[in-house]
Structures are given as structure tokens and as C-alpha cells.
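Thread: "does anyone have the structure for this chain?"

Original post by V.I.:
We have the sequence but no experimental structure in hand. Need at least a predicted one for the grant figures.
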Amino acid sequence: MGTGSGALAISLSKNLPNWTGHVVDISKDSLQLAKRNFKNLVPNNNIKIALGDWWDPLSPWWGSFDLVLSNPPYIPSGLIEDLEPIVKRHEPHIALDGGEDGLESSKKIISGALNGLSKGGWLILEHHYDQSEKVMKLMKNKGFEEVSFENDLSGVKRFAMCCKSKK
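Reply from O.Q.:
Generated one for you, C-alpha cells below.
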């Protein structure tokens, strides 16, 4: 979700040749870039591409996703101007701005995961360095199980994950 250049889908395709996946982005430009990258880097892929807002274009497949990965916009709006110039100049604003608290997109993804994930399906969500507890609380409040986190390479809590009940 929020495929951008397609890096996550490319990694999955290269490492799991029989993998079938869906990528979604709200930006036509990002999807065009992802298509070029898929063609050049994993020409024999099983990737379905959809334009739309998070879960919306995936509704025909709700309840069938075993794994959903996302690196959504998570920078609080008030911090965008303070980002490193290389980030501000090269990343689209829409890919950075997570709203006032930085959690706007994460909330939509977590809520939609109730419908989208299969029983026992996993959601892994990247977040801002100081949002781990908030994101995990959102997951717990929606009833997800096995809510936990992983650190990034610097040892910072950066990835929240949860599982939909197997029942």
C-alpha cells in the first residue's frame, strides 16, 4: 500500500518467485515509475497494479490478503519543513505528509485491514520514530492480535505489526 517506486513488491517478487501481489498508490506518477521498475527488475512478476486510496481499489479481494506491507506518509505536517533538504526536494509531499499527528494514513490502513486481511493475515506498517506506541495502540484497539514492533537498523522502533484473528 502506497507502493511508490515499487521497492517492496520488487523485493518480494525477487525472493518469492511464485508470489502474487497487489500494489496500490494514489499517485499515477508513482504507479508509472513502479511499472517501469517492475518491467526492468522483475519482468516475470505476478503483480496487479491499482490506482486508488489505500484499501478502496482492493475491495474485490477483501478477506484474502495474507500479508500487507506499507510505508505510508507518517511525518506530522508541522515537521515537513524541518526535514533534510534531500528528502524535501526528492520525495513527493504526498508521500511524506501524514497529517497533523502523522497518523492519518496509518489509521486508514489499520481500519481497512479488518476487511482486507485474511484470517491470520499480517499487517506490517512503517511509522515515524516516535509513533510506535500510538500505532500499536491503534492496532490493539481494532482487535488485532500479536501486536508488536521491530527496530530499524539504528535500533529505533520503526515497524509495527499485527495479525488478524484466525477465528
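V.I.: this helps a lot. The mean pLDDT is 93.
O.Q.: and The longest strand covers residues 117-126.
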